[in-house]
Design goal:
It is built from 27 helices and 11 strands. By secondary structure, it is an alpha+beta fold. α8 crosses α11. The longest helix has about 35 residues.
Length: about 750
């Protein structure tokens, strides 16, 4: 039957994207080409910091000290190895002084301090075999990165009687940025071919398998252009590119799988390609839209935090989610109209088949019946198992990101590790107090009160600026740079009464302020995620019980991820196998990031399952049959999507940077646990236990949903005039041989 006969059955949105499918695809191609141009060079504009709260006391003090006392805040270290001669030998001393003079003459450098200029014990190794030259690189993150790129090669290596290695926080950040960029290319080279193979296995058709990759490419390139634009007015973390690649591929595959699967089902019932696209967009398309909004809301919650590390993931995440959904709802339907039945072409699995394909959903339907027959047992067992896996998180210790994120052979990591082990103190590990508006007698009294605090070894200074009247003093702790004792000492110093303005900074103070900021903003972020999720799931289902179940079960699905993060990355189990250095703590912002991303992805699968359950419940009103039908139709789809997304995240997890490795492997675990435990065990078990009450809503909310709610219902019925009549069984279950 010709498509023209069915135009009246095609909705406005479908007509808009399929009336001229070639023009739609041409516009999509033009958008992609422009995105390539607009996003060019984005990696070079991304920053590698952003963990600190910019409005905190420690950030203020750090910036003020950099202005008034550059030498007090060094971010570049030259580690000078005397090659066995001793750092005080005449030849080594002369070379050390020459290196310091040369470094001080560089226009990007200020505040140079060397052992040979001060003979400070803190700048000389305990074995007298090496010493340090420290300096401050001026400017913002971009200026510092440019300076490191230029300075490091000029000083690295042999200089007469000494060997020089480059370290310090600026070198660490530069090496992090370049390592992440290299690792991202490697991850893409791993993920793309493996993903294509898996898609061919899922779809059978090589043509259908290429469609999700096309959607992903549009989303990734478009997001790079968005990030490039955002870097023009604010900082964006280099880590955000990893999320762009992972979510761009993962969500594109999720959305394309869902839409192509539904399109093939509708084709199998006798619809023409354009009519099949119409039904698909009214059903699966709405679900994709709801899913995208839910994931975007989870990621948008990170905007409440002031750290640009977290905000960067919101920028990248929101952009890539919306672009993936847009490509799936605009470009993909145009492709499907043009392909029609050829979407099933080039079935590469035919050679492997020895018998006709069976119904792949039958196993999920049988499993759903088993779970519902033993619902209490499965519900209790699954909950207990997930809680048990999450127990290690009760022992979590939060810390700060440092050089140990890098591979053990990275130069800046080697330098910082040598300083930790061989020097009596770290140049950036002490507590620094900035005093403003104080006279000499006030400073002397304050120094005595601070020195008397428990845990203080000594107080060095104060050092007074001649022009500004500001001063600073350095407090050395009996504890390590950022451990609990030093963090407690930060609070004790801040509690010391003064008649002038005193601001505390240093690694421990930054960590204290970061934890305080996250603790204050976390309830707001969690509230945003919960409220938006509750609202969207209610609009999808019309139930007040299902949204509550969705939020609670989603949160429960993340317990295994958090437990594994502590057991592996904090405590160091499997560190040798995975190739990272355990620090005994977890970077403070990472659990927030991982929660927002993993929660959004879990809701992605939850919406897919609930939409099909709701569609069947609206059609027949049989609660248990609806659960069985939903799992039958989406169980294989969700499992396939989760496995493919996990492959992408594991590819990201091959990074040599520990935090990126933790992000990739942790989210991969969360996705698999959600798809294989929560969606297949907990959801059907809990919905069986709540029975028909699952669909309850008070009359006022029921009326609200009747007016504003959106669901997948009506897909088949909306297309009734476009195909020959079939039995109710055939409408519910198209021929299994036509489905993947």
């Amino acid at each position: 039957m010709a498509d023209v006969n069915h135009d009246s059955e095609v909705g406005g949105w479908t007509r808009a994207v399929t009336a001229r499918p070639r023009l739609t695809l041409l516009l999509a191609l033009l958008f992609t080409a422009l995105a390539v141009v607009a996003g060019r060079g984005v990696a070079d504009r991304l920053a590698s910091g952003g963990w600190e709260a910019p409005d905190s006391e420690s950030s203020y003090a750090t910036a003020a000290l950099a202005d008034h006392f550059p030498a007090s805040q060094p971010n570049l270290v030259l580690l000078v190895d005397a090659k066995g001669a001793g750092v005080d030998s005449p030849a080594v001393a002369a070379q050390g002084q020459e290196l310091a003079r040369k470094l001080a003459a560089d226009p990007a450098v200020t505040g140079v301090t060397s052992y040979w200029g001060t003979h400070a014990p803190v700048l000389r190794a305990k074995d007298d075999g090496s010493a340090m030259i420290t300096a401050r690189l001026k400017g913002d993150d971009d200026a510092v990165a440019t300076a490191v790129k230029r300075i490091a090669p000029a000083y690295r290596g042999e200089h007469g009687p000494v060997d020089v290695s480059v370290g310090g926080s600026a070198a660490v950040r530069h090496e992090l940025q370049s390592t992440i960029q290299d690792d991202l290319v490697k991850a893409e080279m791993i993920a793309l071919p493996v993903t294509l193979i898996l898609l061919v296995m899922v779809f059978g058709s090589a043509i259908a398998a290429l469609l999700p990759l096309g959607v992903g490419i549009i989303a990734i390139l478009g997001t790079n252009a968005v990030l490039r634009a955002i870097t023009s007015f604010t900082d964006v973390s280099v880590f955000a590119q990893n999320l762009t690649t992972a979510l761009g591929l993962g969500l594109a595959i999720d959305y394309a799988l869902f839409i192509v699967r539904r399109f093939r089902e509708e084709l199998a019932t006798g619809l023409t390609p354009r009519a099949a696209v119409g039904v698909t967009l009214r059903t699966a398309g709405r679900t994709v839209l709801f899913s995208a909004l839910t994931v975007a809301a989870s990621l948008a919650a990170m905007l409440v935090f002031p750290q640009y590390f977290l905000r960067s993931f919101a920028y990248a995440g929101i952009a890539v989610v919306l672009l993936a959904a847009a490509a799936a709802l605009i470009a993909l339907p145009a492709c499907l109209v043009l392909l029609g039945d050829r979407v099933n072409a080039l079935d590469l699995r035919k050679a492997l088949r020895r018998r006709p394909a069976s119904d792949p959903g039958a196993g999920y339907a049988a499993f759903a019946r088993l779970v519902m027959r033993r619902a209490p047992l499965f519900a209790i067992g699954a909950v207990a198992g997930l809680l048990l896996l999450g127990l290690p998180f009760l022992q979590v210790r939060f810390g700060a990101a440092d050089d140990r994120q890098l591979p053990s052979a990275a130069e800046s990591h080697v330098v910082q590790q040598h300083i930790r082990q061989e020097f009596p103190g770290s140049p950036d590990g002490a507590i620094t107090v900035l005093a403003e508006g104080a006279d000499r007698s006030q400073l002397a009294g304050y120094e005595k009160r601070v020195a008397a605090l428990p845990g203080v070894v000594r107080v060095e200074g104060p050092v007074v600026a001649r022009d500004s009247g500001a001063a600073y003093m350095t407090v050395l702790s009996t504890s390590e740079a950022v451990d609990a004792g030093t963090q407690h000492l930060v609070g004790a110093i801040r509690a010391v009464p003064t008649d002038f303005k005193a601001s505390v900074t240093g690694q421990a103070a930054v960590l204290v302020d970061t934890k305080d900021t996250i603790g204050q903003r976390l309830p707001w972020a969690a509230g945003i995620i919960a409220l938006v999720t509750l609202l969207l799931v209610f609009l999808l289902t019309g139930s007040v019980i299902i949204p509550l179940q969705a939020v609670l079960l989603n949160a429960l699905s993340l317990t295994a991820m958090f437990g594994a993060v502590v057991w592996v990355f904090q405590d160091g189990h499997l560190s040798g196998l995975l190739g990272f250095t355990a620090t005994g703590s977890i970077e403070t912002t990472l659990p927030v990031l991982m929660f927002c991303v993993a929660f959004g992805l879990s809701m992605d699968y939850g919406v897919f399952l609930l939409s099909r359950i709701k569609e069947e419940y609206d059609r027949g009103g049989d609660h248990q049959a609806s659960i069985e039908f939903g799992l039958k139709r989406t169980g294989g789809l969700i499992t396939a999507a989760a496995v493919i997304l996990a492959v992408v995240m594991v590819a990201i997890g091959t990074s040599r940077v520990a935090n990126t490795k933790m992000l990739g492997l942790g989210i991969a675990l969360a996705v698999l646990m959600d798809a294989m435990v929560v969606r297949t065990l907990l959801v059907p078990a809990v919905m069986r236990l709540t029975g028909r009450a699952t669909w309850w809503a008070p009359p006022v909310l029921r009326r609200f949903h009747d007016r504003f709610g959106i669901s997948e219902g009506g897909g088949q019925e909306a297309a009734e005039g476009t195909k020959a009549p079939r039995s109710s069984r055939e409408r519910r279950d198209p021929e299994p041989a036509t489905r993947n």
